[in-house]
Amino acid sequence: MGFVKEFKEFAIKGSVMDLAVGVIIGGAFGKIIDSVVNDLVMPLISAVIGSVDFSNMYVVLKGTVTEGMALVDARKVPGTVVFAYGNFITVAINFLLLALAVFMLVKGINSLKRKQEAAPAAPAAPTQDQVLLTEIRDLLKTK
């Protein structure tokens, strides 16, 4: 089998197309979660903590920097070691919200599947053999 033909069969399979759609929707969903974190959640958290920009939250482990110096500038000071935890907080909150949203989505889909499985199936129409046997039974009852 030729390489091009084999690749064509692989790419056209339904599962590959489903995966492609999932990746595209996942990317868009990730942007929505980023917006929720950056535009809704982080401002509320920063109102409590008192810092608007989490990316500049850090602790100087070694060396000295001017108070209020941006993280980018603090890292440039020779001999200074900086523990930058602010961006990690943002990414961790982003991950938790994304995981919660995916969990809720999967839980909803599973609930719908369970309801579908629990619904009683409509009785099938009797086959021709069953109709014939029913008629024979009824005739025997009358005799």
The overall pLDDT, averaged over residues, is 82
Span between termini: 71 Å
CATH topology: Non-ribosomal Peptide Synthetase Peptidyl Carrier Protein, Chain A
The largest sheet is:
2 strands, antiparallel
* Continuous helix count: 5
Q: Percent helix among the residues?
A: 55-70%
Q: Which series of helices and strands comes N to C?
A: HHEHEHH
Q: What is the CATH class? A: Mainly Alpha
Secondary structure layout plus pairing:
Blueprint: H1 3-12, H2 14-49, E1 58-62, H3 71-76, E2 81-84, H4 86-118, H5 128-142
Antiparallel strand pairs: 1-2
What is the structure about, briefly put?
This protein has 143 residues and is mainly alpha-helical.
Q: What do these coordinates show?
A:
It is a multi-pass membrane protein. The chain crosses the membrane at residues 12-33, 40-61, 81-106. Channel that opens in response to stretch forces in the membrane lipid bilayer. May participate in the regulation of osmotic pressure changes within the cell. It is found in: Cell inner membrane; Membrane. It is a single chain. Helix 2 crosses helix 4 (86-118). This protein has helices at residues 3-12, 14-49, 71-76, 86-118, 128-142; strands at residues 58-62, 81-84. The chain has a two-stranded antiparallel ribbon. The protein has five helices and two strands, in the order H-H-E-H-E-H-H. The protein is mostly helical and 143 residues long. It is elongated. It has a single domain (3-52, 85-142), classed as Non-ribosomal Peptide Synthetase Peptidyl Carrier Protein, Chain A. The relative contact order is 0.07.
